[in-house]
């Protein structure tokens, strides 16, 4: 079972379950028919192994505590999607899109890519990477090829962790990137919000209804606050608008999705409806350390 998992991570997972329970009551056991993962290195579990990139970690000491050894996870052991999958009742971790069989889309796929960002040019300094737009394109092809029913897709879980690289491997790279020359910090944040909103709407059109959004890594904030005040200030422009319902030109249909926003380190969790059905969850606002 899941021994050693921090209380905070349990809270994150419970929040994801709350998103699922907000629409349709679920029985104990597997909490959703399928689970899809999007994002960057915090969620990548092997997609970068087949890319020409410096953001590749399929070697020791990465994976030293993982049963299968180095797999391409940017961690010593399991990552957050692995734990969510186990606690959600899936028999195995959700496999990477790279190399997965077509039928796997009926159970779930992990599309995340180390270096991936909201903007296409993000992390081009690292080599090949899969942007959020391309991850969604991969998802579209996968569910079409596998003929996953729309009704099933509406009951699936979706988690997204993206945004960090758009700052660290784009806006604040040295020498300055074109994005730095074109946008001031507020304008850059607005461009990210606008693109993110577009991609979330695309997922909505592909059937996504139960989506957990993770904000960018708190470690970036700590580094930024200690060494680069301008970076900290720039990222602060992004946080208040991460909720897609507050994004520019958000539609009523997109706000009808059941979104929950999390951070990878400190998170404020608010349950809008009944919490995880299979056990009591403290629904008061909770601040927690969610990083593995």
List the helices and strands and how they pair.
Blueprint (H helix, E strand, L loop, with lengths): L6 H15 L13 E5 L40 H8 L20 E3 L21 H14 L4 H4 L3 E5 L2 H8 L6 H5 L2 H21 L4 E5 L3 H10 L1 H8 L15 H4 L2 E5 L3 E3 L18 E3 L3
Parallel strand pairs: 1-2, 1-3, 3-4, 4-5
Antiparallel strand pairs: 6-7
CATH topology type: Rossmann fold
Helical stretch tally = 10
Number of DSSP E strands = 7
Which quaternary structure do these chains form? single chain
| Mean of all residue-level pLDDT scores | 77
Estimated helix fraction: 25-40%
N- to C-terminal distance: 17 Å
CATH class: Alpha Beta
Structural class: alpha/beta
Poorly predicted residue ranges? 1-5, 22-27, 220-229, 242-256, 263-292
Number of domains: 1
Strand count, sense and barrel status of the largest sheet are:
5 strands, parallel
Strand arrangement in the largest pleated sheet: 2-1-3-4-5
Strand content: 5-15%
Task: Sum this structure up briefly.
This protein is α/β, with parallel strands linked by helices. The chain has ten helices and seven strands.
Tell me about this structure.
- By secondary structure, the chain is an alpha/beta fold.
- 33% of the residues lie in helices and 10% in strands.
- It has ten helices and seven strands.
- It has helices spanning 7-21, 80-87, 132-145, 150-153, 164-171, 178-182, 185-205, 218-227, 229-236, 252-255, and strands at residues 35-39, 108-110, 157-161, 210-214, 258-262, 266-268, 287-289.
- The strands form two sheets. A five-stranded parallel sheet has the order 2-1-3-4-5, with helices on both faces.
- Strand 1 (35-39), helix 2 and strand 2 (108-110) form a beta-alpha-beta unit.
- Helix 8 (218-227) packs across helix 9 (229-236).
- The longest helix has 21 residues, at 185-205.
- The relative contact order is 0.17.
- The model is unreliable at 1-5, 22-27, 220-229, 242-256 and 263-292 (pLDDT under 50).
- Belongs to the 'GDSL' lipolytic enzyme family.
- It is found in: Secreted.
């Amino acid at each position: 079972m899941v021994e050693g998992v921090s209380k905070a991570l349990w809270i994150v997972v419970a929040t994801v379950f709350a998103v699922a329970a907000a629409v349709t009551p679920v029985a104990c056991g597997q909490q959703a028919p399928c689970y899809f993962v999007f994002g960057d290195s915090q969620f990548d579990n092997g997609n970068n192994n087949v890319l020409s990139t410096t953001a590749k970690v399929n070697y020791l000491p990465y994976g030293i505590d993982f049963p299968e050894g180095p797999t391409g996870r940017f961690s010593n052991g399991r990552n957050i999607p692995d734990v969510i999958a186990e606690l959600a009742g899936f028999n195995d971790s959700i496999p990477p899109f790279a190399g997965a069989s077509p039928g796997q889309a009926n159970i779930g796929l992990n599309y995340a890519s180390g270096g991936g960002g909201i903007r296409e040019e993000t992390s081009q300094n690292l080599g090949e990477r899969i942007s959020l737009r391309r991850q969604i394109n991969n998802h579209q092809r996968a569910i079409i090829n596998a003929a996953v029913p729309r009704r099933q897709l509406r009951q699936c879980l979706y988690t997204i962790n993206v945004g960090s690289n758009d700052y660290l491997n784009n806006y604040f790279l040295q020498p300055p990137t074109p994005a730095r020359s074109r946008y001031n910090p507020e304008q850059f944040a607005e461009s990210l919000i606008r693109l993110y909103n577009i991609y979330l709407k695309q997922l909505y059109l592909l059937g996504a209804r139960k989506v957990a959004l993770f904000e960018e890594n708190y470690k970036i904030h700590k580094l930024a606050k200690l060494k680069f005040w301008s970076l900290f200030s720039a990222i602060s422009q992004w946080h208040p608008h991460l909720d897609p319902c507050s994004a520019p030109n958000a539609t009523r249909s997109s706000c009808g999705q059941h979104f929950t926003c999390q951070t990878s380190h400190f998170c404020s969790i608010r349950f809008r409806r009944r919490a995880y059905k299979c056990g009591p969850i403290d629904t008061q606002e909770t601040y927690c350390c969610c990083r593995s």
